[in-house]
Amino acid sequence: MENPVSTDQHQTPSHSVWGIISCLLPIITLCGVISNYPSFSFMGSPMGSLFLYCIFPVILLIGFILSINELRKKDTKKLFPILGIIIALIAIAPMLLEWLLGLMQGVPFSCLENPSFCGW
């Protein structure tokens, strides 16, 4: 008995919404860290410290996990998840540099260590 579906019809994989989101989250983090670089951490306001120490790492981690998850799927294109991983690795560099510079200046490592530092 023949298969009614022709083997010539092959579905091409498409970009998934989660793959695109996994690429956008590290881009948002990278743009936020670089565009406000002088005003963050020990040089600027407590709100900048809140973003640098608390919010941006969480956004970056979520984007990285989504990228890894999308790479594991077999029916989607891999361009955006791969770009998401690359951009996440690039975005962590200025963030780590800022953390190290802040620690050298005596800034607390997190908002949990000194909540008044983050404006709480």
What features would you highlight for this structure?
single chain, 120 residues, mainly alpha, elongated
Topology record:
Blueprint: H1 17-35, H2 46-72, H3 79-104
How is this structure best described in words?
- The chain is mainly alpha-helical.
- It has one domain (17-118).
- 60% of the residues lie in helices and 0% in strands.
- The chain has helices at 17-35, 46-72, 79-104.
- 30% of the residues are buried.
- The model has no long low-confidence stretch (mean pLDDT 76).
Mean pLDDT: 76
Strand content: under 5%
Number of domains: 1
Low-confidence stretches: none
Number of contiguous helices:
3
Largest beta-sheet details = none
Q: How far from one another are the termini?
A: 71 Å
Helix content: 55-70%
Q: How many DSSP E strands? A: 0
Shape descriptor reads elongated
Radius of gyration: 20 Å
Structural class of the helix and strand makeup?
mainly alpha
H-E string: HHH
